[in-house]
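Hey, can you fold this one?
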Amino acid sequence: MTDNIVSRLAEHNITLPEAAAPAANYLPFVISGSQLFISGQLPFENGALAVKGIVGQDVDVPTAQRAAELCAINILAQAKAALGGDLERIARVIKINGFVASDPGFTEQHLVINGASNLLANILGEAGKHARAAVGMASLPFNAAVEIDATLEIR
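Sure. Predicted structure:
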């Protein structure tokens, strides 16, 4: 594995999209001291919501894991925008909060959010390992299957 984030993204065939504009009255990210707070990201791909529906009902676990990966890619896109394009300023992912639109009987939210956790660890190495929450929700904005926000430490 190469030693920089841009190279690791290329090795995984990931091209970061342009950071999405907010869909309501909030900021997509806020920097406070050495922390970067990234608002909830949805599984957008090529400008469209890629995974919609309720996990355990309309969406299976592998598809929901892909949705979580897309959320993580969009978190990195927001980080890139916040940091003037310099992803090497990411010192550590502190915590992610994963929200999964879930059927009432679905209890594998942790497996879904592994999609994001694995991607962040693969791209950022040790700095991508984080604390997290994985919770079920009745529904999410735009009928998204997954939403994830993040707190990062920056240099």
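The beta strands are 29-32, 35-41, 44-45, 48-49, 90-101, 131-137, 146-154. Let me know if you want another pass with a different chain boundary.
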